[in-house]
Specification:
By secondary structure, the chain is mostly helical. The chain contains 14 helices and no strands. The protein is 71% helix and 0% strand.
Length: 368
Amino acid sequence: DLQICQHRAPTCCTRKMEESYQAAVRRERTQSIQALNFELKYMIVGHITAFQEAFESLLRFAENHTSSLFEAAYRPMAKEAAEPVKELFTDISLYILGAETTVESAVLRFFDSLFPLVYSRLINPGITDLSEDYTECLRLTRQDINPFGRYSKNMVTELSKSLWASRMLSQALSLGIEVINTTEHAALTKECSKALVKMQYCPHCQGLTLIRPCIGYCLNVMRGCLASVSELDAQWREYISTLEYLTNEMAASHDLEIALTGIRNSINEAILHAQLNGPQLSATVDKVCGQPKQQEENLSSDNIVPVKEVTETQTFVMAHASLSNKRREFISYMKRSRTFYASIAERLCDGDLVMRDSSTCWNGEDVV
C-alpha cells in the first residue's frame, strides 16, 4: 500500500514510514533554508545594529555640539535651552527609526520652544515675569512673526534631505529581515513533500542507504519545490539596487553627519538674526502679547557673544569614518547576495545531499 516509494521488488518500507519520511523532509528543508538564510540574516541584523549604534553616536555628538553653543555663546539661557535641544534630537532619532513624525514638525517645535527663551533672556533680558500664558503667547507668535528668518526653514530643508535616506535605509533593512523570515517558513506542497521523499528516502526502502540523488534530478526537484521562493529573485535584485541607491544618497553631498553637526550653526545664525531684529520683534510682541514686567536695570550687557569653537572634532571624525566604513562593507556584501533567491536550488543541492564523485546515483526510479 505504498503511495510514494512504489517498486516492483520487495520493500522494507511501510505506509507509516512514508509519512515519517514526509515529516522528515519538511523539517530538513526548513532547516536547510534557515542555514542558507542565516549568514544573510546575520549580516543584515548585524548592520542594523551597527548603523543604529553609529546613528546614536553621531546624534549624541551633534546634541553635545549643539548644547555647547548655548554654554559658550548664550549662557543666560543655556540651562533652559537644554530640554528643547534634547527633544529635538530625540525627535530626529525617532524619525530615522521610522516613527510617524516629520523633520519639519520636530524643527518647528524646537524653534517654538526656543523663541520665549531668546526673547526673555537675550532680546529683553530684564523680563522677570515669564508666566505660562506669556510663554505660550510667545510660542504661538513665533509662527506669525518669524523671528528666526529663513534659518528655521533652511534647517528643515537641509535635515530633510539627509535624514530621509537614513530613515528609508533603516526601514529597508527591517524589510529585508521580514522577507528572509517569510521564506524560511514557506510551506511545502504535498507534491513537493512526495518528490523530496522519492528523491531522498525511497532508495532506503530498497536497502540502498548510501546511494544519493543524481545532481540533475536534485536540481529539478528543488526548483519545483522552491518555485515560489525563486520568484523573489527579480524583487530581491531590485531591493539590493535600492539599498545601494540609499547608501549612495547618504554618502552624497547631503551627508547625515554634516547635516547633524550643521544644526549648531543653523541655530546660532537663527538666534543672531532674532537679536539683530530685536526692536521690531519687541514692538510686535508688545502688541500681540502685551508688555511683561521689567527689572529697572538690564541684567545683561553682552547680548551678542561670538561663538567659541568646540574641540570635539576627533569624536565626530571617528563616528563619521565608522558609519562610512559600515556602509561600504554592507553594500559590498549585499551586492554579492544579488542572486540569493535565483540560486537557492543549486545551493540546497550542493554538498552532502547529492553524489558528485561517483559513477552511480539515484534518479528517482533506480540506481543509474
